[in-house]
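TEACHING EXERCISE
Course module: macromolecular assemblies
Task: Read the component lines below, then compare them to the predicted structure of the full complex.
Student: A.B.
Group: 4
Components provided:
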Amino acid sequence: MWRRDTDTLDPAVARELEALETALAGDPAADPSLLALVEDVRSTRQVMDAGFAARLDNSVEWGFPRRRDDRLGRLRDTFLGRRVRMLPALGVAATVLAGITAAVLLTGGDEGREPVAIPARSAQPASSGGGGGAGATTGGQNLDAVPLTPAAAPPPAARSSAPTAAREDSSAASTPSFGRKMERSAELTLTTSPGDVQDVSDRVIETTQSLGGYVQHSQVSTSDGSGEASFTLRLPSARLDEGLKRLSNLAHVGSLTQGSNDITSGFVSVTERLSDARAERRALLRALAKAKTSNEIASLRARLRFNRSQISQLKGQLDSLRRRANFAAVDVTVAGSGSRHGAGGVWTPGDALHDAGRVVEVLAGVALVAGAAMGPALLVGVAVLLGGRALRRRRRDGALDAA
Amino acid sequence: MSDTVALALPTPDVASLQFDALYRSSASEVFAYVASLLHDRSAAEDVTAQAFERAYRRRKSFDARRGTPRAWLFGIARNAALDELRRRRRVASLVADPEDPAAADAFGEDDAERVARRATVRAALAGLDPRDRELVALKFHAGLSNAEIALVLATSESNVGTRLHRAVQRLREACHVAA
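Instructor-supplied answer key:
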């Protein structure tokens, strides 16, 4: 609605208009000619007849009910009425939808708050001596809800022939048995804010030591905007589950992969070879005691030297296998990916504030993109709407001019 | 007990109550204004009813910050009347405007001077520009203030004042010449 509000009335015109207002008000002091004019003009006024007035009164009293054939009008009434009533529900639905969208957009990035599907993989190929390796993977979940014991899936042959053996394999995977030697491993990714990487790293080391394990390798790098630490831990296999639980409580768990490998056959093989070597040593020593010639003695001593080195080598292999069975290898990565989730994976008010900010950021981004895409269409629509209104107004004025 | 009864009663619709008051105070003025635009009693009745129905259905969208209820109502009535003019494509002349029997009854048969003056004014009105005639109707028949007329016609108040002054001058001149 365009108006020239800056126009001002001529003082003489203003005075005469005041006089007209006085006459219209019926003031006896008004200009008699104006009073007469007002009376004469008003006498030309059309008056409603009583029948029409009664019908209109009736319509007003009943709220202008729609005719039966006015389906469009009835539909409009229904829709408008429901629209107003449904506004709060629509608002809640829109908010929930926006929240879900924002959550999906947020977790689709680098934070991995929602469970991230990581393809399960075997930790290592199954050893040649039977048994099997198995892997269990999870991501972004509370470990209390995740079975930490990897399901040691037996090979198809073992599964089909002896279900009992499969159960034994499974129990062997959870706790090292005296009969079978299982090598266990795990990879754990923790995410935290860059500023908390050092603190979480310190607590990883403390936890490892308190479990009776040791840190085989560590690397921590922090800077202003980012930080990352990686560890190769050796935890007692018997306490691996407990260790993973405690480690996962230090920060948000981005991913967790577990694996197990049956090394029983290798262990048995080395043990037998060591036993053989020791028996050979005993036989060589007995032969040496009985040897009489210098050549015979020299030959036996040479064979004893070789036997000693063989025994030493086999002992080393056996110790290595025992270490692999007794200490699980755990690769821990602490990623300072910008997530502000506090230590222990607890969602704090600060996290909530940060997430809310991120939601607003994402929504603003979405709005910006949508605006950029829909802006031109919206402008055209507004122009058409305004043009239509102006055209309709001109046509109406034209109808008046023609009257 | 009375409190219980009071709570059980439906809450009055404020918008409906205000509309009812607006209808009671403006119905005859709206009809007079629409009739002056259409020059057809039957069409004026239809359009008046249509205008009130539109206003009733939109009563909750009325915004007091944008003007008075009367200005809002006359804006609706004006649009309805002009739409009717456009629809019918009929050009009516004020000269052809039928006598209002109700108004005629207001005069005695012997009051010839008044009847003559009235005819003179009707002729003078017919000689006005349609826009000025509408302005006179809004001012004299509907009793709107200049500010309300400005809202109805989507123009400025000073423009309304200037045009109204000019229209009244022409009316007075026409009546004087006729006399």
